[in-house]
């Protein structure tokens, strides 16, 4: 047996089974498995790529969402700022409009249109323009429809959406030198001139301002007296008669005699200021006019209130309404509107309204509220405030 070769080798690393089959090694890769592993690797790579792409898309979506939210915040912020600025601008325009409508800028809106002949002839022009410049009032030198006239206009600039507006002031003034005024009277054309102005401006108030009229007349009379033969052609005009007739026979026609150019300029500048402010003043009534002259007793406790409060002064202005009665009414009805609201109530009878104030308590001299106003005072107040004729006397209204 030693010389024969054995079919079984003990030095072999691999062992055969009983059928001569050799067990495959773990590291041995079969040819059919290689494509499968390659496919798995490709699938894993594709899955990884897909996952990365999905993560990238998620990140991009989140970034876009953050950017969109940031953009929306910026837009909302800008929108809020724009709305805030718009509201501030509207508030500014509303405030400015209220100021113009209330007359706060009345002197800035009025413009005097001065006929060029006033500046070119006579000695009034230079002083007049100087006064306008000193007061900061606006004027325009132009050719007016009627020679020697001054007209006024109110010019309101554009405020926000409201366009600029121009309105006429129903007032016309004529500046006449003394010689010119006397010539109009002597020639008989003065009244024709007045009628011409009234026909052209029927709703306007007309004012004739003369400069150095009486000085001129006196000067001519002295010269005529000294040199009578040389002054036979001059005749003294009936200026007093004409001025009186202007006041008595013509409606809304006035006259003003000024001693010199400075007085003429001051009158026109003062008139300009008054015309600018007059349309914004509260209209006068019977009570407001008489309230300014209401007599308030010195021993009246609330004397300061009676002087400052218009409604209180109006109550005191009603005849036979004592200040302590007016104070009792004022405490119950602090404004005229509150009392008139009750008087205008259609559910109450006239008798109830007349006796509305009779039970109000007023203070006596000691300070105790022990006395009533009574029906007489209550009825007088009601009939005075509710009188249909504004010119009726208070005593007649109370009857």
UniProtKB/TrEMBL annotation:
Keyword Protease listed: no
Residue ranges of the region described as Disordered: 1-75
Top-rank lineage group of the source organism: Eukaryota
InterPro entries: EME1/EME2_C (IPR042530), ERCC4_domain (IPR006166), Mms4/EME1/EME2 (IPR033310), XPF_nuclease_EME1_plant/arthr (IPR047524)
One Gene Ontology term, aspect cellular component: Holliday junction resolvase complex
Biased composition range(s): Basic and acidic residues: 38-75
Keyword Cell division on entry: yes
The ERCC4 domain, residue ranges: 114-270
Single biological process term from Gene Ontology: cell division
Cofactor(s) needed by this chain: Mg(2+)
This protein's UniProt keywords: Cell cycle, Cell division, DNA damage, DNA recombination, DNA repair, Endonuclease, Hydrolase, Magnesium, Meiosis, Metal-binding, Mitosis, Nuclease, Nucleus
GO molecular function: DNA binding; endonuclease activity; hydrolase activity; metal ion binding
Pfam families found in the cross-reference section: EME1-MUS81_C (PF21292), ERCC4 (PF02732)
Family named by the database record: Belongs to the EME1/MMS4 family.
Protein name in UniProt: ERCC4 domain-containing protein
Native species: Aegilops tauschii subsp. strangulata
